[in-house]
């Protein structure tokens, strides 16, 4: 199975729809894609994603309903791991620093407090 980072743009968009919705038909995916391709193109991409093992389908009446094969939390961890390796030399600290720097003006006091508590908790747990 390919890593999520090697998805084409459309494959990634389709996977985002399926993860966000939990399950989706080709029609559902088509309705939620930006600048959508044809219905046939969506069906073809769903077949490709299924062949690669990223989605599976169940038949409901005359429709195929697509579901992700990997739970969202596992896919999220894998994507984050890849992001860390690709852009931050594997350093969570560099990634967090970049996120805080990027959104400094958008973080509320409550969000900053929560981040501080998470850091304190990690210290206590000896991470």
List strands and helices in order, with pairings.
Elements: H1 9-21, H2 26-32, H3 39-51, E1 55-60, E2 63-68, H4 72-87, H5 92-102, H6 109-124
Antiparallel strand pairs: 1-2
Task: Give descriptors for this structure.
single chain; 127 residues; mainly alpha; Arc Repressor Mutant, subunit A; 2 domains; two-stranded antiparallel sheet; 6 helices
Broad CATH class of the largest domain? Mainly Alpha
- Please, what is the average pLDDT? 91
Total strands: 2
Helix content: 55-70%
CATH architecture of the largest domain: Orthogonal Bundle
Q: Give the tally of structural domains.
A: 2
In the CATH hierarchy, the third-tier topology of the largest domain is known as: Arc Repressor Mutant, subunit A
Major β-sheet annotation: 2 strands, antiparallel
Order of helices and strands: HHHEEHHH
Number of helical runs?
A: 6
Classification by helices and strands: mainly alpha
Q: Could you say which overall geometry the principal axes of the C-alpha atoms support? A: elongated
Poorly predicted segments: none
How much strand?
A: 5-15%
CATH superfamily of the largest domain: Winged helix-like DNA-binding domain superfamily/Winged helix DNA-binding domain
Tell me what you see in this structure:
The radius of gyration is 18 Å and the shape is elongated. The mean pLDDT is 91. Strands 1-2 form a two-stranded antiparallel ribbon. 60% of the residues lie in helices and 9% in strands. The chain has two domains: 65 residues, Arc Repressor Mutant, subunit A, CATH 1.10.10.10; 36 residues. The protein contains six helices and two strands, in the order αααββααα. The longest helix is centred in the middle third of the chain and has 16 residues. It is mostly helical.
